[in-house]
Amino acid sequence: MTTLHYFAEGVLAAPFVVVCLLYLAAAFRDTGWPVYRIGLFAVGTAAAVISVLGPLPRMAHDSFVIHMTGHLLLGMLAPLCMVLAAPVTLALRTLPVPSAKKLAKLLRSRFVAIVSHPVTATVLNIGGLWLLYTTGLYVLMHESALVYTAIHIHIFLAGYVFTASIIYIDPAPHRYSFLFRSGVLVTALAGHGILSKYLYAAPPHGVGQEAAQAGSMLMYYGGDAVDIAIMVILCWHWYKAARPRQDETPAA
After folding, report:
1. Which residues does 53 contact at the CB level (< 8 Å), separation at least 6?
2. pLDDT digits (tens, 9 = 90+) for 131-188
3. Please, what is the Cα angle at 154 between 148 and 160, to 5 degrees?
4. Is there a contact between 140 and 147 (Cβ–Cβ < 8 Å)?
5. Looking at per-residue confidence, does 136 or 85 come out higher?
6. For every residue of the chain, which 3-state class applies, written as one string?
7. How far is CA 252 from CA 112, 247, 249, in A?
8. Which of 50, 95, 115, 188 makes an SS bond possible with 99, Cβ 3.0 to 4.6 Å?
9. Taking Cα atoms as reference points, which of 58, 53, 95, 61 lies closest to residue 78?
10. 74 — pLDDT class (breaks 50, 70, 90)
11. Contact (CB, 8 A) for 83 and 164
12. Mean pLDDT across the stretch 23-52?
């Protein structure tokens, strides 16, 4: 790793630490905020920081398996935990009224509607991974600190937007049906699974066959674990929305 790559580690880790501190400050200000959500955000932050700062990212330069571990932490586990922590809801509850109104207006904007569309989010997330591993970007990432930083930012943001577009924890003005989101999720699972199998047979440039096989298996099974969690949450929300309410009287 070059000195610039070490600098990139700090650049990538700092925003997560700052956002976590802001989240904690807001959570302690809102005395009714659930403790489990604080724990989820802390776990998500830890997963993200571990993936971009310290021994793991440095070993990832020489190990495809370690690289894939970082990918799972940064692009899948951290986004899932942070989405479940409902940071937007917390912000809307604790920000001053003028700032909360601006945030609500942003959520209703056309830009957010396009980016948060499940199909767009899937293309950014899964399509970005295909682009990374089937082009020269994977090699370039290890040679250029700028590309390295940009790719890691994209992996996290794409993972977060995708997760938030499938399971609605925070307010989502642009909502889509459970059936539609389920179809998109299954498509994304297929795209992720096919990519892992492709890497098993055709490793990125500079990655040995054995390392590629181990890394692609980790990508396949580790990704499935997080995706199953998303699927379970989506189905649970669907079940709660569809079941009859207790105050509803049965039809005669």
Report:
1. 9, 10, 12, 13
2. 999 999 999 998 888 999 999 999 999 999 999 999 999 998 889 999 999 999 999 9
3. 140
4. yes
5. 85
6. CCHHHHHHHHHHHHHHHHHHHHHHHHHHHCCCCCHHHHHHHHHHHHHHHHHHCCHHHHHHCCCHHHHHHHHHHHHHHHHHHHHHCCHHHHHHHHCCHHHHHHHHHHHCCHHHHHHCCHHHHHHHHHHHHHHHHHCCHHHHHHHCHHHHHHHHHHHHHHHHHHHHHHCCCCCCCCCCCHHHHHHHHHHHHHHHHHHHHHHHHCCCCCCCHHHHHHHHHHHHHHHHHHHHHHHHHHHHHHHHHHCCCCCCCCCC
7. 45, 15, 9
8. 95
9. 53
10. very high
11. yes
12. 96
Average of per-residue pLDDT values in the chain? 92
Judged against a pLDDT cut of 90, whether residue 215 lies above it is answered with: yes
User: What's the length of the chain?
Assistant: 252
Nearest to 189 by CA among 166, 156, 157: 166
Per the CB < 8 A criterion, the answer to whether 36 and 93 are in contact is no
Q: Which two tokens stand for residue 159?
A: 């993972």
What type of residue is 40? L
pLDDT, greater one: 235 or 7: 235
Whether the per-residue pLDDT at 251 is higher than 90: the answer is no
pLDDT at position 198 over 60: yes
Q: Which residue has the higher pLDDT, 250 or 222?
A: 222
CB burial class (10 A; 0-12, 13-18, 19+) of residue 108? exposed
Question: Quick one: residue 76, left, alpha or beta (phi over 0 = left, psi -120 to 50 = alpha)?
Answer: alpha
Q: State residue 36's pLDDT score.
A: 96
